[in-house]
Amino acid sequence: MTRSYMTTGGLRLENRAAAWALALGDAVAATAADAALATLSYYPGIRIGRLANAVRLTHSGAVRLLDRLEGEGLVERRTGKDARTAAVFLTDRGRTAAERFLQRREQAVAALLAPLAGTDRRELQRLIDKLLAELPSSRPHQEAICRLCD
């Protein structure tokens, strides 16, 4: 029986891309806390609702995460632009933790990209840029896909 994802030449591009994406995710091994710290390093003062969207949590899940991060001295909540909202900021400890995570992420990705050099790296960058340019451009979507970026 032939599976739909198999070809005579081996696994299809889609299957290989998915496998590499999983390998990348496993290598980075980011938690919701890591995603929150990375997001806050890029969007200081973000509102809880936007942070929840970016880290793919419900609002109540984000509040619980922030409670824990605040208890660890990594974030602080301040009054937002109006008294009804809270803005979230990294503390000095939080900035250090975010930088450590982003450095680990960079090292993990670099290790997976190590087999590529020169022209191959430039070609992969060109192709990834092309793929990223075709993703939805709404702010909530961009914040979510960039939750582990620096």
| Order of the strands making up the biggest sheet | 3-5-4
Q: Name the shape in a single word.
A: elongated
N-to-C SSE series?
A: EEHHEHHEEHHH
Q: How many angstroms separate the termini?
A: 45 Å
Our estimate of the beta-strand percent is 5-15%
Helix content bin: 55-70%
Specify the CATH architecture: Orthogonal Bundle
Secondary-structure-based class equals mainly alpha
Any idea how many domains?
A: 1
Radius of gyration: 19 Å
- Report the CATH topology name: Arc Repressor Mutant, subunit A
Main sheet makeup: 3 strands, antiparallel
Residue-averaged pLDDT: 88
- Number of E-type strands: 5
Fourth CATH level, the homologous superfamily: Winged helix-like DNA-binding domain superfamily/Winged helix DNA-binding domain
CATH class assignment: Mainly Alpha
Low-pLDDT stretches? none
Describe this structure in words.
It is a single chain. The protein has 150 residues and is mostly helical. The protein has a single domain, classed as Arc Repressor Mutant, subunit A. It contains seven helices and five strands. It has helices spanning 13-28, 32-42, 48-54, 59-71, 92-113, 118-133, 139-145; strands at 6-7, 10-11, 46-47, 75-79, 86-90. The chain has a three-stranded antiparallel beta sheet. A two-stranded antiparallel ribbon has the order 1-2. α1 packs antiparallel against α5 (92-113) and α3 (48-54) packs across α7. The radius of gyration is 19 Å and the shape is elongated.
